[in-house]
Amino acid sequence: MKIHTNSIRKQIGNINKSYYDLITHEIGDTNLTVPQVLVCRCIKDEPQMVSSISETVKLANSTVSSIIDRLEKNGYVTRIRDSKDRRIVWVAGTEKLTQLRKKMPVLEESFFEILFEDLDEESVEQIYRSLELLANHMMKKVAEYKKE
Amino acid sequence: MKIHTNSIRKQIGNINKSYYDLITHEIGDTNLTVPQVLVCRCIKDEPQMVSSISETVKLANSTVSSIIDRLEKNGYVTRIRDSKDRRIVWVAGTEKLTQLRKKMPVLEESFFEILFEDLDEESVEQIYRSLELLANHMMKKVAEYKKE
């Protein structure tokens, strides 16, 4: 069991590394970084709040804010204050982002789907069930540790 | 199949998030960050080269270098030039890191094992096989994309 547990960590590392490699390869010579791509994906037709982007990309609000700073500087997004509640800030994509999205499938949610097109349905099912098991176990552990 | 593929991405996100949460909870009120913990784990009894640490933690050399800068500033590691080849730099743990390691299981490789103690062997096997399948598929995709 010892060997498998360490191997599980290594495989998670390999999966994350491959996903980053794929995105890095796809963004090529644009001036975007991987975290910027992940944030851009969250902003579609509707403006988003920083908190909902943070929730989706699983990064801290402060990290997402600094990613948005750089995206705004490069003209891909813009911050808009809510007309009714001035404390609320919305992040909206610009025309420049819309144009970029047309050229880059990696900016679309569907990019992950394309990756799995040539994998048979049974394997996808098996992968999904195991990841669900692992994710639930780890979330349970987080809850346990926080209670201690 | 569409639902599962997007769910796979979400579960990977949940797994990564839980692992970060666990480490964040364990490091508590020390001045360490999660990437610093991952780098510290690589430095045991033997000094390491930046390139081998990068390989283990799956981060770029430049990222690992700046993490080591901060760890060195806080007295946890020290850089040593190779006595035979002055171009080679080794990163070694200090006595302060040894002391910290004794108090924090999260700094040990075995932390991941402890997480899985209460999961039955069959589930661990299933998780391992599925992750291996997913990792291999994604690494194959990276190779394919790079060839295009």
Automatic annotation (TrEMBL), chains A, B:
Cross-referenced Pfam families: MarR (PF01047)
Species for this entry: Schinkia azotoformans LMG 9581
SUPFAM superfamilies: Winged helix' DNA-binding domain (SSF46785)
Stretches that traverse the bilayer: none
The protein, known as: Transcriptional regulator
GO molecular function: DNA binding; DNA-binding transcription factor activity
InterPro entries: HTH_MarR-typ, WH-like_DNA-bd_sf, WH_DNA-bd_sf
Biological classification of the source: Bacteria, Bacillati, Bacillota, Bacilli, Bacillales
Gene3D superfamilies in the cross-refs: Winged helix-like DNA-binding domain superfamily/Winged helix DNA-binding domain (1.10.10.10)
Keywords: DNA-binding, Transcription, Transcription regulation
Record domain HTH marR-type: where: 5-136
